[in-house]
Design brief:
By secondary structure, this protein is an alpha/beta fold. It is built from seven helices and nine strands, in the order ββββαβαβααβααβαβ. The protein binds iron/sulfur cluster (SF4).
């Protein structure tokens, strides 16, 4: 595995993918969030001293052979859609180089960016797939487990998922395998929406 030469880990490799870590901010505070138990994943410290600019991200990407990855994934220690402009610009740059790009998100993008048409912007930039954290079978449980900062986050997450599906983006909904949730019910919700389902 190769680590970023910069002080901060803007990217890291795992599972044949390249993961991008562009923010430590999030619109939720999940009880199972790895940020509360660790400084990173796979031995990489994902705590950022500053949020990287588009130029910084692209300079790092230019040092890599991007053709060797299955996907480049916006994920990391925060919610990528908090940095929508930067994400869209980097997605466009990657798409122009025939790289498959995925977003891992909590699905709050329309609440975080109320004046934007997030799904259209993602689609237009070339985003191929989105993995949305469903995390619970009911709004009540979701609020308990994810402690979102916005009201109606659960519904907004479901609406965002449907919108992205309608736009032709491949969607997977995920849950963390914690005892509090009913995984079968969550899987049914995902499949009823038309999304794939994954326990992470
Ligand atoms: S949405 Fe993701 S990054 Fe945000 S608190 Fe939950 S697990 Fe952590």
């Amino acid at each position: 595995m190769t680590e970023s030469t910069a002080k901060d880990t803007i990217y890291y490799e795992a599972h044949g993918n390249l993961y991008l870590n562009i923010t430590n901010k999030c619109s939720a505070s999940c009880v199972f969030c790895i940020r509360d138990f660790s400084d990173g994943v796979y031995g990489y410290n994902l705590r950022l001293s500053h949020e990287p600019t588009v130029d910084e991200i692209i300079s790092e990407l230019e040092t890599l052979d991007l053709s060797k990855y299955k996907e480049v994934v916006f994920t990391g220690f925060g919610e990528p859609t908090i940095r929508l402009d930067e994400m869209v610009e980097v997605t466009r740059w990657l798409t122009e180089r025939n790289v498959t790009v995925r977003l891992d998100t909590n699905g709050h993008a329309n609440l975080i960016n109320p004046d934007r048409d997030v799904v259209s912007e993602l689609k237009y930039a070339g985003m191929s797939a989105v993995s949305v954290s469903l995390n619970a079978e009911s709004e009540e449980l979701y609020n308990e487990l994810c402690r979102p900062i916005y009201d109606n986050s659960y519904q907004a997450m479901l609406d965002f998922t449907r919108e992205a599906l309608d736009a032709g983006i491949h969607i997977r909904m995920t849950v963390v395998g914690v005892p509090e949730i009913d995984i079968e019910k969550c899987e049914r919700i995902a499949h009823d929406i038309g999304a794939d389902f994954h326990v992470r």
